[in-house]
Amino acid sequence: MTELAADAEACLWRAGELGAAVQGTTSPNPWVGCVIVAADGTVYEGATQPPGGPHAEAVALAAAGPAAAGATAYVTLEPCSHHGRTPPCADALVAAGVRRVVVAQADPDPLVAGAGLARLHEGGIEVVEAEGPAADAARAGLAAYRKHRATGRPWVVLKLATTLDGRTAAPDGSSQWITGEAARADVHRLRAASDAVVVGAGTVRADDPALTVRGIEAPGGDPRRVVLGKAPNGAKVLPALEWVGELEGLLDRLGAEGVLQVLVEGGAHVAHDFHAQGLVDRYVLYLAPVVMGGDDGTAAFAGPGAATLTGAWRGEIVAVERLGADLRVDLAPTPRPPPAANVL
Fold this sequence. Notes:
- The chain has helices at about 5-20, 55-65, 90-95, 115-120, 135-140, 145-150, 180-190, 200-205, 245-255, 270-275, and strands at about 1-5, 35, 45, 70-75, 100-105, 125-130, 155-165, 165-170, 195-200, 225-230, 240-245, 260-265, 280-290, 300, 315-325, 325-335.
- The chain is of the alpha/beta class.
- Strand 5, helix 4 (about 115-120) and strand 6 (about 125-130) form a beta-alpha-beta unit.
- The two termini are about 40 Å apart.
């Protein structure tokens, strides 16, 4: 692993931005970004296109043309080495005469898993496996892809919009709008970045949500909609997958169908069940400066919780962002410690 100079670090940051911009459009492929810097300093960019289209490296190489000879390529993921819907990117980089390739991470897909880097070496390309903030960000940005390739299941994001005292609705059931416009727009960005959105049938009956992406550009279109239970005829969420069964079975099915990220939007029983079964990879809480001031509003989770404080779930705050008057707080589960060894 190699720490990058400031200019190289900036190029890898840019590659990460390019990849993040196409999340939600590339599944089951990863959302990869590529920056090519020619020998004269000219910069060419690319991002992975929807399935069947070129990968990020191929897009950037096409933009660079002959200028790719002797250039340095910065890529957020190891270039592929196998024929899928498109030819191998590693071969394309070699054929173009690229001199150096900087990668943020190896590809966990068994079809690649180091073979892409090996092909670059064989082709005479200098390969740099980067470390530092930009590489860390690129790895975090592809966490959903890495989980899918390792487990076959999608990355699960649980979204909650609550008052500061943890209520998602007033005693009369009213919940629109707890958060402001900026937070609601951010939810639509989160939907656009997800391949599927999950909601309980009770929420469908109570609120009749459409669960579409609105108010922002969504190149990947609306996410696939999943209802836990049976949706009433004429519900806005239809057509949808109506699932009756274990949540783990649902994740297995969605993963097998190429879904890399699932957004769980509610309601309280659904949130509780995903949380209680340890199926959530990232919690996204939108906190409004509102206090219900009692215990008769709807809580974020419906079901038994920890019996003691020592048994309460504790996570790690990985990001906090102000959105208008509201806060977005991102939480990650803390890794479980390994089991203690038996002492005889």
